[in-house]
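FW: tagging you since you asked about this chain on Friday. Here's the raw sequence from the shared folder, copied in full. Didn't touch anything.
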Amino acid sequence: MNEKGFWDSLRRAELFDAAYRIESTVTPGFPDVVYSSRGFTGLLELKSVAQSVKCPLKRAFEPSQFGWHAGAAGNIFVHCLLFLQNRAILLPTNSLTTIVQLEVEPLLERALWVGPERRIGRFEGLMDKLEKLNETFRMARAGRAVR
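HL: got it, structure written out here
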């Protein structure tokens, strides 16, 4: 499945109260999707790669995306949603330079959430995981603001 097909699948799952795919030449490196749901807003970088690739993300990111994610780390609620081996995989972007070097098994070990290998219910549990991650993110941001 290509990235557009992955986006269509995600959109049709109706997980978010609002979700928009953004294609921007104005802000190089900006993530593909902005969404809002359950009282929080986040960004997703969508990636869809061939199943036979040894290091799935090695060539998936543009140089401008590395720069954007490095600048946003810890300040913006953003993740990578990867389609690989017929499943969706949620990955952190705060260590993007490390993650892109990983082969499939270590990549899956670093995943924050791995969806089931089926078309129906592909995103089952994703919103619950994003909600928990957002709560942790907000508490960490509040702790930094207090100091």
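FW: The first helix runs from residue 3 to 12.
HL: agreed, and The first strand starts at residue 18 and ends at 21.
FW: great, closing this out.
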